[in-house]
Structure formats: C-alpha cells, structure tokens
Write a structure and sequence with these properties.
Elements (H helix, E strand, L loop, with lengths): L1 H13 L1 H7 L3 E3 L8 E3 L1 H20 L3 E2 L5 E3 H7 L1 H5 L7 E3 L2 E5 L4 H8 L11 E10 L15 E11 L2 H21 L8 E6 L13 H18 L3 E4 L9 E7 L5 E10 L2 H4 L3 E3 L5 E3 L1 E10 H12 L12 E5 L5 H13 L4 E3 L6 H10 L4 E5 L1 H6 L1 E6 H6 L6 E6 H14 L2
Parallel strand pairs: 3-7, 9-10, 16-17, 16-18
Antiparallel strand pairs: 1-2, 4-6, 5-6, 7-8, 8-15, 9-11, 11-12, 12-15, 13-14, 18-19, 19-20
Helix pairs in contact: 2-10
Length: 426
C-alpha cells in the first residue's frame, strides 16, 4: 500500500495540470472558459520556442509555410465533407449578414482552396503546404484535461499535394522521418515514450467513412507495407481512421497511463476528388493529385503537456523559460550582477536577476524549485575578477557529489557554453 502511494505521489509530481500553474506556465481561467488555456509569460516562451523550432526544421525540409484565416464560410466545410462528419465537434455557425461562417476545426479545406487558386505543374510536386494554425473544436466538458484536451489549439499542420501514389508513400515516409527526428530532439524513445498505431476504417460504417472499398484496401495496404519496410513495430486499430482515409498515429501516454495521439500522418484518397485537385503532367494532361495530411509536432498545447510531464518541468536549456539566474550574495554585488544580466540578455540568453534580500541558500533553493538550468553566483571574488561561479541543475542531478558546481568562469566563457548548448538543443 505504501509503495502504491509513493508511486502515485511521483506521478502527481509530474502531472502537467499541477506543474503548469506551479511553474507559472499556464492556467485555465473559469471566466474565460473551460478548455481555453491562458499562457503566462514563461509558458508563452516555451510555446514560441516549439513553434520556431518546427517552422525552421520544416522549412529546411522543403515545406512552404502559409497563413490562412481562423474562420471560413460554412459552404467550405460542406464541400470538404467535414461539416456532416464533424459538426458535433464544431462550433455553431456564425451568422454575418446573409452568410454563415465557422471557426475552423482543421486547415485542409483552406489549403486545398489555396492550391486551386492557380494551375500547377507536375514539376511542383510534391507541394508541401504547411501552417501553424489556430483551430477550434467543441470538446465535451468531460473530455477536457489541462493542455492535453482543449477547445482551441495551435496545430503544426501540413498538406502535401503529390503527383502519384508512389510519391505519396515517399512523403509519408519523409513525414515519419521528421516525426522521429523531432521526438529524438525531445529525448523521446520509440517503444518507451511513443509507438505507432495504424488506424483503419470500417467498410460497413458508411456514415462515418467515405465509401470506396478499393481505395480503403489500397491505402491501408500502402501504409502497412511502409511501416513493415521501416522495420517499425506497430499495432492496428479498426475504426480509428479519418473519414477520408487511413492514418499512422503516434501514440503517447500521459502520467496517468492514458494514451493519446500526439502526431499523425494520413493518406487521403477522398478530398482530392471532392476539391478536384489536379495538376498538369509532362504530356500536358490534367491528372488527379494525391494528398498526405500530417502533423510533425502535433498540437503545440498537447506536446507541451507531454513534455512538461516527460521532463517533470525541468526543461532542457533551449526550452527553459529562464535559462540562467544570477544570484548576488549581497547588495554590494548587485551592481556587477546587473551588468552580467544585461550581457547575458544581449547574447540572447534568457536570464533573470534575484536581487532579493534573501540568503544565498534561499536564492539557490528558489532557483531549484523553479527548475532553472544554470545559476551564476556572484560574490567578492567574482566582482574582483569579473567572473561568475556557474552551477548546473542537471550536473547536480547526475553527479550529486559535485552539487552542480562547474566553477568560476569568465562571463564570455559562460555565454559560449550556454550558447552552444542552446544551439545544439542538447
């Protein structure tokens, strides 16, 4: 019984719903509404870092980032088929003059309309349209949970327009490569922190799924063969597909053991037909395009929830809201500490100064509770030599005998060390 209670306490200490407010990352304001997270300054920093990370990485891999509106006319979602299939999880239409608009629950209709804005050649394929899009879904109250299940979220979304099924399979493979790279940067291990699920349709459920048995068989077969070729262990789940095609879902568990989809890659044989997505081939003839939907990092809110729990709030340096805290031992050291603070900020390091009247021991304990990666202690010796004594949160955890102390270093050396660690996302 005691062992079970200890385990529950450990899990609770990692729960993002507890850590988020404690570390001043986010909170849910009852006046604003359920499922509508409010990001505090520190949480907003993590959110921006994740967004910039994935934009930079996708751009390097040939993705074209765009920006589309948060709402659209209802007829767009009727055209795509999302309204009849997903209307229960969509917000009610907004009447403006004589037209009805919807807060968007997904971006694919916007991206397809953008593709249709001009003719396209086979030479442009694959066209990887990407967006960090704010989406809105009316989740049931009982399903809402911290950042993991919310009613508005930012999705790192993409729709890849392909010239052939073979090209679509190559793009799915590339999307999985990107997802595994992202997971590796976060320190997530396949088979331990996440796993693949091949999500299949149900031929008998014509209300939920687009009716085309041959296309379903082929699409599911293509994804299954790809996963086997990659040598990835996976499991299959019937009736978990999107209405327009099968998908590979990357499943992660929260601290309570509940599994959710973090990222996804979907094969779509339905919407290219609904939107008449075509390109001109090398013979000058119009051909039907194929589409891959994918999310490389998932919803920013959901991945933040997973990462808060994975790191227990002790984020790696590049993601930490405060990367270094400067701790003057007494008021006599504050002037120099303030100079060091500005030097670090000028170098692009997120730093704070603790110039409170507390003892050094209390300042160090506060920095530890805030899970700050590095502290710079400044006393008489440091002022005289224009240095700081650097201490590391992670070194203290892995080598307790050192108490995290790295040593007295020149400020330029400290900046070089931290900058390199940030750059490498180590």
């Amino acid at each position: 019984m005691e062992e079970k209670e200890q385990k529950e306490n450990v899990l609770q200490e990692r729960d993002h719903k507890k850590l988020g407010p404690e570390l001043e990352l986010f909170y849910i304001d009852p006046v604003v509404g359920k499922g509508l997270p409010m990001f505090l300054p520190k949480g907003a920093i993590i959110k921006r870092e994740l967004e910039q990370f994935i934009i930079d990485e996708e751009t390097k891999r040939g993705y074209l980032h765009v920006h589309t509106p948060d709402l659209a006319k209802l007829e767009l979602y009727i055209k795509s088929g999302h309204y009849p299939h997903y209307k229960d999880s969509m917000y009610a239409p907004i009447q403006i003059d004589d037209e009805q608009f919807m807060l968007r629950p997904m971006t694919c209709p916007h991206h397809f309309q953008m593709f249709l804005s001009r003719p396209h050649s086979y030479r442009e394929s694959p066209m990887r349209i990407a967006e960090l899009a704010q989406l809105y879904r009316y989740e049931q109250s009982g399903e809402l949970m911290g950042l993991q299940r919310v009613r508005t979220f930012c999705l790192a979304d993409s729709h890849i327009i392909c010239a052939s099924e073979e090209q679509a399979v190559e793009e799915i493979n590339g999307a999985l490569d990107l997802i595994e790279y992202v997971a590796g940067v976060f320190g997530l291990t396949y088979g331990v922190d996440y796993r693949y699920r091949l999500s299949l349709g149900d031929r008998t459920n014509t209300e939920k799924y687009y009716k085309n048995d041959a296309a379903w068989e082929k699409g599911e077969g293509l994804l299954r063969a790809l996963l086997v070729k990659r040598g990835a262990e996976f499991f299959e789940a019937k009736d978990e597909a999107a209405f327009y095609g099968p998908k590979v879902d990357i499943q992660m568990k929260n601290v309570n053991g509940k599994e959710d989809t973090a990222f996804t890659v979907q094969y779509d044989f339905c919407l290219p037909e609904r939107f008449d997505l075509t390109y001109v081939d090398q013979n000058g003839e119009k051909k039907r395009a194929f589409v891959v939907h994918r999310s490389s990092i998932g919803a920013i809110e959901r991945i933040m929830a997973f990462l808060i729990e994975h790191y227990a709030g002790a984020f790696p340096l590049w993601l930490s809201p405060v990367q270094a805290k400067i701790l003057p031992i007494s008021d006599a050291h504050v002037a120099y500490a303030t100079e060091v603070l500005q030097t670090l900020k000028d170098a692009g390091i997120r730093a704070e100064l603790d110039d409170s009247n507390e003892t050094l021991g209390k300042k160090i304990r506060t920095a530890k509770m805030e899970k700050v990666p590095y502290t710079l202690v400044i006393g008489d010796a440091e002022v005289a030599s224009k240095t700081a004594t650097l201490e590391s949160r992670d070194l203290a955890a892995t080598q307790p005998d050192t108490k995290g102390k790295i040593g007295q270093l020149a400020i330029t050396d400290i900046i070089a060390k931290l900058t390199e660690e940030i750059k490498n996302r180590s």
